[in-house]
Write a structure and sequence with these properties.
Layout lengths: L2 E3 L14 E10 L9 H13 L3 E8 L3 E5 L5 E2 L7 H17 L22 H15 L2 E8 L14 E9 L20 E2 L2 H11 L6 E4 L2 H14 L5 H15 L14 E4 L5 H4 L6 E8 L12 H26 L2 H4 L25 H5 L4 H13 L5 E5 L18 H10 L7 H15 L4 E11 L6 E11 L3 H13 L8 E9 L24 E2 L10 E5 L1 H11 L2 H7 L1 H15 L3 H20 L9 H13 L16 E6 L6 H10 L15 H6 L5 E6 L5 H10 L3 E7 L11 H14 L5 E6 L8 H10 L1 H15 L8 E6 L7 H5 L2 H5 L7 E5 H6 L5 H10 L5 E7 L5 H11 L1 E8 L5 E3 L6 E3 L3 H13 L14 H10 L6 H9 L3 E8 L12 H18 L5 H21 L1 H5 L5 H17 L19 E8 L1 H14 L1 H8 L16 E2 L4 E6 L5 H8 L6 E11 L3 E7 L15 E6 L11 H6 L4 E19 L3
Parallel strand pairs: 18-19, 18-20, 20-21, 22-24, 22-25, 23-24, 25-28
Antiparallel strand pairs: 1-14, 2-15, 3-9, 3-11, 4-5, 4-6, 6-7, 7-8, 8-16, 9-10, 11-17, 12-13, 13-14, 14-15, 26-27, 29-31, 29-35, 30-34, 32-33, 32-35, 33-34
């Protein structure tokens, strides 16, 4: 609905209650979807559903670009904004597309006919663009495009041509008949997304460029699809991937036979007008594989079945559309060869640009100019003239004007939603109520949303009337919010709206002079409305199966070479290499690919570091493509460095009048020292001396500077330092009688008195110091010099380092977490292992004993023996990771971070200013309680400190805006092979709800600290607020002390787990930091459980047998039959477990090393076991099993070996361990089989997801 005004001020109305009559969807794109289950499980489910004729698989290419939404006319939106360079470029590209593919000789695009005309972009394209635009606008559609350009940021490769691809169409006005309190008429629907058939037919109707799409409806073709991806995953390009998909279609198209039960199978392709290879290039991001259910459910072989008839009709239609798609491509393929020659960008003033200039705009040339957006604005202004859409952005803060009326431009969207939902007059339509409920739910869930209010002004074509609309763009700040919202919908089952990306709405103000509920005149769609549709109302029972499968050539470019630039520039080449290795490990690529790509990344890092111009991520491909050519020619490739013959520091001392550079260079070459020579003795540090044990270091010094700067350095490093002193001769007293000579003689004696490993004399005049070659000749031929060098090499051998990588254990936690208790006596509990020294460095001791800053002290301690295991008893918040990372790379140490169990994304704050933290509030409460109840603390953080609780809150806030996933990823990128250990902190994996007063107090404390950190408010008031909040916190902790005390596990259990896991980690430390990620490498993945995996059909055959014999069993499972369709991983539902197994060992019971040594040889081995009984309650059911006594097979750690069969909602599978006790307490039943049934399984390791 538009509000009309004749150039009136922006005040649209006086205050009303509420002032909004409608909320309308303005632009939407599909909700964010990420698999919450492993790809292998999704594949299996897809194949099973295709095999039972429940649906088919649809495959499309993933073009790499930016999202553009178009709701007709000038209503262009990017994902989170409008009227920006993304929308302007997209608008120009769409019009250029119409200019390219329309002309007077092609019947206005309505029929697929041939034409000899050239597609030069005559005036006809404007008519077709306007026709499409009005159709989209009047029918309330939103067309979503992927805009692929070289000017809006670089992805996998620079596209050959700038273009866009239609990827989705949303019908925002579609109504499913649910009024929800309103009349539901006309435009008051909740919308739907077009099916693929509809998208392609719509695209053909207007010659819009849809994606390449393949359809596979037989199991055989789907298996070939997955086989093709597995084969091409690490090498796939557009050429190879498209070729394989086309081959599958060619070989499987129209097959009929036994596999389909006599039913027609279909494999077909919808050909794009813009083939990926011709437009984007050969680097392919990936493919999207989606399971699409048939509209009328499962098809059977019964020829009289309506579903079968509809299914055949739909597949036949797909084939016809595929043929039409290819014919259209062939018809206008000449356009690919007759692209208009791009003209230079105009510098003409806007008034002089012709309105038909759009087809000739050279976007790439425009982008090179400083005023790019102004130039493209000029072009669009010339095209639209006075009808050009104008946007004014406003803040989302509710303000009032001088007359007391609320200003539409600064309306509070959340309050509007609440007012609408509190209204009892039933005057709001379905669409308004759905949107209002969504906004209210986001607020209740404290999902961080930015509501951007903009005012849109446009002038109608045939009048001077200006229309003004108020639009709101919803920007979801964190991707994890989509999963939270979807989980809420599943739990509530209330059919709420989905949470879209690219989500914009219109806020229609109330008016007194007209009925604001004007219905849109929707054109009759020339489409089959019985084709599959995706309603935008959620359905908790719908299982959406989708796979986003990327290819390694794209991933290494975008996610490593581009996204790793920040790490490379801030932390150096070593940190970048580690980041790259961690990425490859996370992607679980083969060792062959690791060996191929790691040298490539090393070369890229050296190229970027040597480039005089900083490499920017948004334009990285300009450098990358140059680097690829240089790398192929042999440049920047790794060559093995020669082993240095020096371990320690050589300091060459001589008079200032002599140039020591040739001498130092010659010695460096002779001893193969890789490091740069230090020419200023004052820059030599303790750290340099430590590092000199790995590769050596050479430094020059002037005798005249004196020895004062050396004494402090020599206190702890004398055994690492060698002096070369250049003198006048053997007898210093004969050096001369002048003042300068006597001074040199005296100061030389001072240098010779310095304590060091060895002192050498090098007589002046014995060699020409001006030429490096002459010095090298002297060192290699002079007997005294040769003896001196040999002696130096021998001494270096005794000074060599243990080159094995060490381990640095650290705690990224908050005060009161119990880390000091875990570390107490740790050096006695573990002692030395594998020749590695165990070091405990306590942060509070370092501070209290005045040893200096923590990290320099740690560096000195670790570098003295870098293969040690150093345990840092100190909280390491995010801002300290850079120091730790640098230390790991300098010492070649592996980083092991220790986290508590039970981490979960925790959102705190009011909606517009909420933040996410990785620790639950239960953890904050427990840590505060520990601080308040501890004995007087060495760091003085105990109950005696007046603001002790708020200091804990301050540390908690260091993790602001850090999700669990992001935090763990950062920790894995620290040092070499960064590892994360989680130790038991809470008693139970599912945390109970916090008491209301405790939860509210903790949240308010975090909000207060956030305001202080972000400097929001008054400092004096904050100081008073901290004191008052401290008092409240202590009172709340005390009042809830029993609840808090019952949250955490015992210190003894946590400490024993920590010792066991740490011991295992030490035992598994490698002898080198060389990259490898083979399955046997324990640093690659953590084993979660050792299981004996069983076949679903075999286990349920036992249940079916028992149902025939035992009425109670039959009744129990008959009542639960409908639960079989529910996802086993969705704990909000009653569900059957499909991944059936017997757990032999769990990571919480057994160290990683023990699991490896005890079970690694059994992986893949089959074992027969006996099913003996069924135990079941209202909450859970399991089959008890007996494991044969066999010395080669370890016994399960669980005293009750079993297979969990079924779980009720919110029940965890591990709760089946309690069934024997429940039977004893008459809370569960046990039915014993008359004869044990043999089951056969295979041993597997289940790994934690990386």
């Amino acid at each position: 609905m538009m509000s009309t005004t004749n150039n009136t001020p922006n005040k649209l109305y006086k205050s009303s209650s509420p002032p909004i009559s409608h909320l309308k969807l303005e632009a939407i794109f599909h909700p964010k979807f990420e698999n919450e289950t492993p790809d292998s499980e999704i594949r299996t489910k897809m194949l099973d559903k295709v095999d039972t004729h429940s649906g088919y698989l649809e495959v499309s290419l993933k073009h790499s670009g930016s999202l553009l939404l178009w709701s007709g006319r000038q209503c262009y939106f990017s994902k989170n904004s409008t009227d920006n360079k993304f929308t302007k470029v997209g608008e120009v590209l769409l019009m250029q597309h119409f200019a390219r593919f329309y002309d007077d000789g092609v019947n206005n695009g309505h029929d697929i006919t041939t034409s000899s005309s050239t597609l030069t972009g005559s005036s006809n394209w404007k008519d077709e663009y306007e026709r499409c635009s009005e159709y989209v606008y009047s029918n309330r559609l939103t067309c979503s495009f992927e805009v692929v350009t070289s000017i809006l940021g670089h992805h996998g490769d620079i596209p050959k041509r700038d273009y866009l691809i239609l990827i989705a169409v949303a019908d925002r006005g579609w109504n499913n008949g649910d009024n929800n309190g309103g009349d539901g008429g006309g435009s008051g629907g909740i919308g739907r997304f077009y099916s693929t058939n509809e998208v392609v037919k719509f695209a053909h109707q207007f010659r819009l460029p849809h994606n390449d799409i393949w359809i596979f409806s037989s199991r055989a073709s789907c298996e070939l699809l997955f086989d093709a991806y597995d084969e091409l995953r690490e090498v796939g390009t557009a050429t190879t991937v498209v070729g394989r998909l086309d081959d599958i279609v060619a070989n499987q198209s129209g097959t009929e036979g036994e596999e389909g039960g006599g039913m027609m199978m279909c494999a077909t392709k919808f050909t794009s007008l813009y083939p990926h290879i011709m437009y984007q290039g050969d680097i392919l991001e990936g493919v999207v594989i989606r399971f699409v259910p048939y509209p009328n459910g499962i098809c059977t072989m019964n020829e009289g079945c309506d579903a079968l008839s509809d299914w055949k009709d739909m597949l036949e239609e797909m084939k016809k559309i595929g043929v039409a798609s290819n014919e259209l491509f062939q018809l206008i393929s000449s356009a690919h060869e007759k692209m208009d020659d791009a003209q230079p960008p105009t510098t003409t003033p806007v008034d002089n640009i012709a309105s038909d200039y759009i087809p000739h705009v050279n976007l790439r040339a425009l982008a090179e100019l400083d005023d790019f957006e102004d130039r493209i604005d000029n072009v669009l202004q010339a095209f639209h003239g006075p009808r050009r859409r104008r946007i004014q952005s406003k803040n989302n803060v509710c303000q009032q004007d001088s007359e007391g009326s609320k200003d539409m431009k600064s309306i509070d969207v959340v309050n509007v939603a609440k007012e609408i939902l509190s209204d009892t007059s039933h005057r709001y339509d379905s669409e308004t109520l759905h949107i209002a409920r969504l906004i209210q739910t986001l607020d209740e869930l404290k999902i961080h949303v930015a509501y951007k209010i903009v005012m849109e002004h446009t002038t109608l074509a045939d009048t001077s009337t200006t229309t003004e609309r108020c639009l709101c763009i919803l920007h979801i700040q964190h991707d994890s919010s989509f999963a939270r919202y979807n989980a809420f919908l599943r739990k509530e089952g209330n059919g709420g709206m989905l949470l879209f990306r690219g989500f914009s709405i219109e806020l229609v103000p109330s008016t007194t002079d007209q009925d604001t509920r004007i219905e849109t005149n929707r054109e009759s769609m020339d489409m089959d409305m019985d084709t599959p549709m995706c309603a935008m109302s959620s359905n908790a029972n719908d299982e959406k199966l989708m796979l986003k499968m990327k290819f390694l050539p794209y991933m290494v470019r975008t996610f490593i070479c581009r996204n790793g630039l920040g790490i490379l520039q801030s932390s150096g080449i070593g940190a970048f290499e580690n980041y790259a290795l961690n990425q490859l490990r996370n992607w679980k690529v083969s060792d062959i690919s690791v060996r191929k790509w790691i040298p490539f990344f090393q070369g890229w890092a050296r190229y970027c570091s040597s480039s005089p111009i900083a490499v920017e991520g948004s334009k990285y491909l300009r450098h990358f493509n140059t680097f690829v050519e240089l790398y192929a020619s042999g440049q920047f490739q790794s060559t093995p460095e020669p082993t240095s013959l020096l371990s320690g520091v050589i300091i060459i001392v001589g008079p200032s009048k002599y140039d020591l550079s040739s001498l130092s260079t010659a010695i460096s070459q002779e001893l193969q020292c890789p490091k740069e020579i230090v020419h200023d003795i004052k820059k030599l540090t303790d750290k340099d001396c430590f590092m000199s044990k790995r590769g050596g270091l050479i430094c020059t010094a002037q005798i005249e500077n004196g020895v004062g700067c050396m004494w402090k350095l020599l206190k702890q490093n004398d055994e690492k330092i060698f002096f070369f002193v250049m003198a006048q001769g053997n007898d210093d007293t004969s050096a001369g009688d002048d003042v300068y000579s006597r001074k040199i003689t005296g100061m030389t004696k001072s240098w010779r008195k310095l304590p060091c490993n060895m002192m050498f004399d090098l007589p002046l005049g014995s060699v020409d110091l001006s030429k490096t070659d002459a010095v090298l000749e002297y060192l290699r031929t002079n007997e005294a010099a040769m003896a001196m060098m040999e002696k130096l090499k021998e001494c270096s051998k005794s000074n060599e380092l243990d080159e094995r990588p060490g381990l640095i254990v650290f705690f990224p936690l908050i005060p009161g977490s119990g880390k000091s208790s875990l570390c107490e006596n740790i050096t006695m509990d573990i002692a030395e292992r594998n020749g590695r020294r165990i070091i405990l460095i306590e942060g509070d001791k370092v501070k209290n004993e005045g040893k200096g800053k923590f990290y320099p002290v740690v560096t000195k301690e670790i570098m003295s023996q870098s293969s040690s295991v150093a345990i840092l008893d100190k909280n390491v918040p995010p801002n300290s990771l850079s120091s730790l990372n640098a230390l790991c790379f300098e010492s070649k140490s592996i980083a092991l971070s220790v986290l508590p169990s039970g981490l979960i994304d925790t959102h705190i704050g009011f909606n517009a200013s909420s933040h996410v933290y990785p620790f639950p509030l239960h953890y904050l409460a427990a840590c505060m309680s520990h601080v308040l109840h501890r004995e007087p603390h060495i760091g003085k953080l105990d109950a005696g400190l007046k603001d002790a609780c708020m200091i804990v809150v301050q540390f908690y806030c260091f993790y602001r805006n850090m999700t669990v996933e992001v935090w763990k990823e950062k920790l894995r990128n620290v040092g070499y092979h960064g590892r994360v250990m989680e130790i038991p902190f809470f008693k139970e994996p599912s945390l109970p709800d916090l008491p209301h007063d405790l939860k509210e107090t903790l949240e308010l404390a975090v909000i207060l600290q956030t305001n202080i950190d972000l400097k929001i408010g008054n400092a004096a008031e904050d100081e008073k607020g901290v004191a008052a909040m401290e008092e409240k916190l202590r009172a709340s902790i005390w009042n809830n002390r029993e609840f808090i005390g019952n949250l955490t596990t015992s210190l003894e259990a946590s400490r024993q787990f920590f010792i066991n896991e740490l011991t295992a980690e030490i035992d598994l430390l490698p002898d080198t930091t060389e990259p490898t990620i083979t399955a046997k490498n324990p640093l690659a993945r953590s084993i979660k459980i050792v299981s004996l995996d069983l076949e679903f059909s075999e286990v349920h055959a036992v249940i079916e047998k028992m149902k025939d014999t035992f009425p109670a069993v039959r009744k129990y499972f008959t009542q639960r039959e409908e639960h079989k369709i529910n996802d086993e991983n969705d704990k909000s539902q009653n569900r059957f477990i499909t991944s059936l197994h017997v757990t032999f060992a769990h990571a919480s019971q057994m160290p990683q090393a023990t699991m490896l040594s005890s079970f690694e040889h059994l992986v893949g081995v089959r074992l027969q076991i006996n099913a003996t009984a069924l135990l079941f309650s209202d909450k859970i059911a399991a089959i008890q099993v007996e494991i044969p006594v066999d010395s080669a097979t370890p016994k399960p750690m669980n005293p009750f070996p079993h297979v969990t069969i079924w779980c009720s909602e919110n029940a965890e599978a591990y709760e089946s361990n309690d069934l024997p006790e429940m039977v004893n307490n008459n809370q569960a039943e046990r039915v014993v089989l008359e004869q044990p049934v043999v089951l056969e399984g295979v041993f597997r390791f289940w790994y934690d997801e990386v």
